[in-house]
Amino acid sequence: MAPIRMIDIAVNFTDGMFKGIYNGKQHHVSDIATVLSRAWNAGVDRIIVTGGSLEESKEALAIAETDGRLFCTVGVHPTRCKEFEESGDPEKHFQGLLALAKEGIQKGKVVAIGECGLDYDRLHFCPPEVQKKYFEKQFELAYATKLPMFLHMRAAAEDFCEIMERNINKFTGGVTHSFTGSAEDRDKLLSFHNMYIGVNGCSLKMAENLDVVRGIPVERMMIETDSPYCEIKSTHAGINFVKSLWPSKKKEKYDKECLVKGRNEPCLVRQVLEVVAGCKGITDIDLFSATLYQNTCRVFFPQDLDAAADALLAGRNESQ
Questions:
Q1: Any binding-site annotation on 28?
Q2: How far apart are CA 260 and CA 102, in angstroms?
Q3: Binding of a divalent metal cation 2: at which residues (predicted)?
């Protein structure tokens, strides 16, 4: 059987924690190279670096250019949508995003528009009207570039799905990542034929979350860490399903052979795979990971679909 291969669809490598900075204070050297090495050794073979603002998307693209296995998104996170208006010229800001996305496509690096969507949990950053306006606007980026969408939905399912419905013909497909919604929210998303649901540690906190995840069909799911956030903690409902462990030390005692305690990183997408398999009662984890891999290729790496399908079939034949 082929070894497990995973794609982490959400890593915030632009976050200060990967530069060793926590709450404005430097605790250790920048260590993305070390973090990547651990990820590749764990069976991750591609990572999508998240862009959440125009500046961050530029940085995400620069990071993606450092390794053939890194890719990125270009877009504006709902909590940062004020940047369109604060730029003084929202249309120019939009054109800046479009130009960056086109540049990144040419480089073979930008694979989605996002992270965009609605977040009504954190309205202190950006009011709902501004969020809705610029969420809708970003479908134009997807339409102009023919890229899929990398989406964010928090406590906003009704407005989110309404905007999606209006723009369904403007994008090829997408994933609503870091999903923490209800069964009803899940089913609304699944009613869009081209929508996948991204699952990470935040999706697996409580027994109720696990119930919701059980109802996501395997062929409509992707996995992610959303690191450095959303790790699976020892208090989480699915912790007993975790099999892969790494030593960790506090940031004050930084050791490159260990994870930083409390900082999530892409190698831990393996734990997400294990918890989802465990809660769904899936025993063939190789086949499960191959299906998730193929889902991810279908949306973000369609040029590799044939190879992914061949590998999946080869794995099936070997196991029979």
A1: no
A2: 36
A3: 152, 177
226 is in an annotated binding site: yes
77 annotated binding-site participant: no
115 is in an annotated binding site: yes
List the CATH number of the domain containing 137: 3.20.20.140
Could you list the pLDDT tens digit for every one of the 320 residues in the chain? 457 899 999 999 999 999 999 999 999 999 999 999 999 999 999 999 999 999 999 999 999 999 999 999 999 999 999 999 999 999 999 999 999 999 999 999 999 999 999 999 999 999 999 999 999 999 999 999 999 999 999 999 999 999 999 999 999 999 999 999 999 999 999 999 999 999 999 999 999 999 999 999 999 999 999 999 999 999 999 999 999 999 999 999 999 999 999 999 999 999 999 999 999 999 999 999 999 999 999 999 998 876 656 665 555 555 44
Q: 100: domain range?
A: 6-313
* Domain count across the chain: 1
Q: Whole-structure pTM over 0.70, yes or no?
A: yes
Question: For residue 86, is it within any domain?
Answer: yes
Structural domain contains residue 277? yes
Query: Does 1 reside within a domain?
Result: no
